[in-house]
Amino acid sequence: MATIVKSDKIGIQKAADSIQNNGVVIFPTETVYGIGASVYSEIGIKSIYRIKNRPSNNPLIMHVTNIQMAKSFWLLNDSEEVIIDKLSIFWPGPLTIMAKRNKNIPTFSKSDFVAIRSPDNKIAQELIYKSGSPIVAPSANISGKTSSTTNEHVKYYFSNEEDVMIIESDETCNYGVESTIIKVEDNMVTIVRPGSILKTDIEDV
User: Fold this and answer.
1) How is residue 3 annotated by DSSP?
2) Per-residue model confidence as pLDDT tens digits over 145-159
3) Which of 154, 65, 82 minimizes the C-alpha distance to 116?
4) Taking 80 as the threshold, does the pLDDT of residue 109 lie above it?
5) What are residue 6's phi and psi, to 5 degrees?
6) pLDDT at 57 over 90
7) Which stretches within the chain are classed as H helix?
């Protein structure tokens, strides 16, 4: 059975301790629930892929507290930094920004790019902060199935999974769809995955 903790300070600290010790934690965000592990934990990341039955070539989004934290993992030229600074008006929020990665990310991240976002959810923010590291987290569902937007959805998928800790919350995700993903390279912005932040929103910025 999955371990259930409350969304209070004690529960979130237990979840953060699990993250620090190669564990996998399910937590709410404003988009959908995420299933996460430390970006530095190869064991935790492999567990996510196994638990979700996720294809190994499908990369994970990194969750951070703010834009300064994100920049420590990107390798940006001047134009990319200007663009990302403008786009950071959407943070925290449902926008994921993909840009070239630097060497601060472990070598088992195979892509030259890394996708990062800052969730607009107090539980998620506190979990990242107390974990002391970014959390890589895809949606909390079995691959190919509907993403979880409530605690009941999460329990339906994962209540029998021993290697998971679930932060129990009464929250319903505000958006209910995954974040918009954009790729920033040189002076170009490309939408990789549509979401609640629209093309017109990005163009306005």
Assistant:
1) E
2) 999 999 999 999 999
3) 65
4) no
5) -80, 165
6) no
7) 9-20, 42-52, 67-71, 78-87, 122-131, 151-158, 199-204
Judge contact between 61 and 136, C-beta under 8 A.
Answer: yes
Look at residue 63 and give its three-state secondary structure.
strand
- Specify the DSSP class assigned to residue 90: G
Q: Residue 45 corresponds to which amino acid?
A: I
- Closest Cα to residue 197, out of 123, 87, 100? 87
- Cβ of 2: how many Cβ atoms within 10 Å? 17
pTM, to two decimals? 0.95
> What confidence tens digit (pLDDT) does each residue in 12-34 have?
999 999 999 999 999 999 999 99
Residue type, position 31, single letter: T
Q: Would you tell me how many other CB atoms lie within 10 Å of the CB of residue 56?
A: 9
Q: Rounded distance, CA 185 to CA 110, Å? A: 18
Determine the Cα–Cα distance for residues 22 and 39; give it in Å rounded to an integer: 10
Tokens, residue 19: 């993250």
